[in-house]
Amino acid sequence: MHFKRLRDLREDHDLKQTDIAEMLKIQQTVYSRYERGVQNLPLEYLLVLADFYKVSTDYILGRTDNPRRIK
Known about the structure:
CATH architecture: Orthogonal Bundle
Number of helices: 5
Radius of gyration: 11 Å
Number of strands: 0
Largest sheet: none
Oligomer: single chain
Strand content: under 5%
């Protein structure tokens, strides 16, 4: 699954793949595979990224166009 929103969110925050990889404590090449959909994004990273960007997991997954989290 391709996660275009991961790249869009990262770029909207003026971050590099290395910045996000460092936050997740993984290599940049691994994070790049997540963005390109070559490798599945682990649930724990999905949750961390949703919290970091303050968006819903459904938004990252492309299940909704509304980035707001339901509380």
